[in-house]
């Protein structure tokens, strides 16, 4: 065997060995990338809602809007989906998801299946396609318009304090809508504007919110007491405002749009959104046209 052939075979062997080493020691088994014309927060919440409705799936952690670790259990294995969301511009996000098969985590299993990755690939592609379909439908079902810097409403209201995760905000409102409206009607209290949500604690890492579901009313000297319904004054604040059109279940998409706008314009915000709802979901109608005014207060200098 001449030198040229030996060098060629040695080169092929080195390349093959390097490829096997990469497959054996890389931290994931399959990766998918795509781009979407929206913000990381919108994709983050869409992944989480999709996960809630996907059998055997749960979100293990989300240390930031840009990172999600999801676990999907099937009959034969458990997959881990590590999502990374990178905002490229005001209207474009790059998404990368690395998939790990829990049955392929030891070296021998990885090497024995180097050429048998079709199952992981097929499952991963199917799941990401399903998510993309939901995401694209969602993007068609809502719109966020950044309005201006303005003053948030100043109102006196009857309210119920609530807490939960972001996707369940609208559910909390629905469960207590009749409670507050019937109480106001029963006692002849005069209303003074549209129902509102005042978020006073937003833990973004946990998607946890504490909020007051408020009905603005005319303040008077004597108001009836109730073990569930309370009263308070909400003072006006200097704020960034957006108008959201869509189902109230996802009005928090405007929160992320305002945060992105503020970051691009060097504005410091308080993460305490205020929402004013202009449509009554109980009356039905086209939810893509439901209007919400959303305010994020600007921090005092």
TrEMBL record:
Protein name in the entry: GyrI-like domain-containing protein
One Pfam family from the record: GyrI-like
All residue ranges annotated as the GyrI-like small molecule binding domain in the record: 177-299
Coiled coil location: none
InterPro entries: GyrI-like, Reg_factor_effector_dom_sf
